[in-house]
């Protein structure tokens, strides 16, 4: 598909598939990652091409409403009423996704427990730290037990311990859903993702396993599961990425 904003081509004949598990989206600023996530979330439609979501090809308005109930989204920044409590906000997200009334509170608590925010359920949203907000953001994305989870830079603003906890959480999510996660952090890709897609200037420059990305600088095939090949860590992911992107560094 292709997406333009005026004369800017944000996505240029991009063709990608996101199977179950965690797929990382890597790319420099302005590469088109958020635009791609907005297409997958049904917030935007492509100028040309089609998006097939959860087996539903080019859904129309009515089908999109139903699909949204099966999708969870954490945008880069999300709006909220500062006077809502954490629980009210999470229940509100459940209501938006049409979780039945009788299940909303339980689902909201389950989601808050996953991000270890249940103790803060009665705090006002406006009084949360940046990292806590991010955690509530993930909780609201999961409150409808989605089959497709879209996370735009989910670990931004988290302290190192929270980031480690999040990686485990995202891996668990990937075991039951298709998770697409945009990030600038090579360490996140190394620790969390099964597969990676690299976008540069609106074009797909690489898709494959993380082991395959790490093997790019050597021009060699990766070892099985990366085990008897190159060690998969943030440095190896960054080297693979730099091999494609030149000097545009990602953070480790
Ligand atoms: N609403 C908009 N109007 C005009 N141009 C836009 C708009 N949104 C994005 N763009 C442009 O589209 C291109 C892709 O932007 P996008 O936000 O998808 O990139 P990104 O990879 O998510 O970047 P970042 O890593 O900085 O978040 C950029 O050139 C950007 O300037």
Automatic annotation (TrEMBL):
Q: Under the GO molecular function aspect, what terms does this record hold?
A: ATP binding
What keywords appear on the UniProt entry?
Answer: ATP-binding, Nucleotide-binding, Transport
What PROSITE patterns has UniProt attached to this entry?
A: ABC_TRANSPORTER_1 (PS00211), ABC_TRANSPORTER_2 (PS50893)
InterPro entries given in the database record:
AAA+_ATPase, ABC_transporter-like_ATP-bd, ABC_transporter-like_CS, P-loop_NTPase
State the Pfam families in the record.
Answer: ABC_tran
Instruction: Keyword check for NADP, yes or no.
Output: no
Q: Signal peptide location in the record?
A: none
Q: Which SUPFAM superfamilies match?
A: P-loop containing nucleoside triphosphate hydrolases
Record's keyword annotation contains Nucleotide-binding = yes
Task: Domain (ABC transporter): give its ranges.
Answer: 3-226
Q: Which Gene3D superfamilies does the protein's record reference?
A: P-loop containing nucleotide triphosphate hydrolases (3.40.50.300)
Family recorded in the similarity comment: Belongs to the ABC transporter superfamily.
Q: What is this protein called?
A: ATP-binding cassette domain-containing protein
Task: Give the source species.
Answer: Streptomyces longisporoflavus
């Amino acid at each position: 598909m292709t997406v333009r904003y005026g004369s800017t081509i944000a996505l240029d004949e991009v063709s990608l598939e996101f199977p179950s598990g965690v797929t990382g989206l890597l790319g420099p600023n302005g590469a088109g990652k958020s635009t791609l996530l907005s297409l997958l979330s049904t917030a935007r439609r492509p100028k040309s091409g089609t998006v097939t979501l959860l087996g539903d090809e080019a859904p129309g308005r009515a089908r999109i409403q139903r699909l949204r109930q099966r999708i969870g989204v954490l945008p880069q920044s999300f709006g909220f009423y500062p006077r809502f409590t954490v629980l009210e906000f999470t229940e509100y997200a459940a209501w938006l996704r049409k979780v039945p009334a009788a299940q909303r509170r339980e689902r909201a608590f389950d989601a808050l427990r996953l991000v270890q925010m249940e103790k803060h359920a009665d705090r006002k949203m406006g009084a949360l730290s940046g990292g806590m907000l991010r955690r509530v953001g993930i909780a609201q994305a999961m409150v409808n037990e989605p089959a497709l989870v879209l996370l735009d830079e989910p670990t931004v603003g988290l302290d190192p311990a929270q980031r480690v906890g999040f990686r485990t959480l995202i891996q668990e999510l990937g075991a039951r859903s298709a998770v697409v996660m945009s990030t600038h952090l090579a360490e996140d890709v190394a620790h969390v993702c099964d597969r990676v897609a690299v976008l540069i200037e609106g074009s797909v420059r690489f898709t494959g396993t993380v082991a395959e990305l790490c093997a790019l600088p050597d021009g060699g095939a990766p070892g099985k599961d990366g085990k008897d090949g190159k060690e998969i860590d943030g440095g190896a992911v960054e080297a693979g990425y730099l091999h494609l992107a030149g000097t545009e560094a990602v953070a480790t």
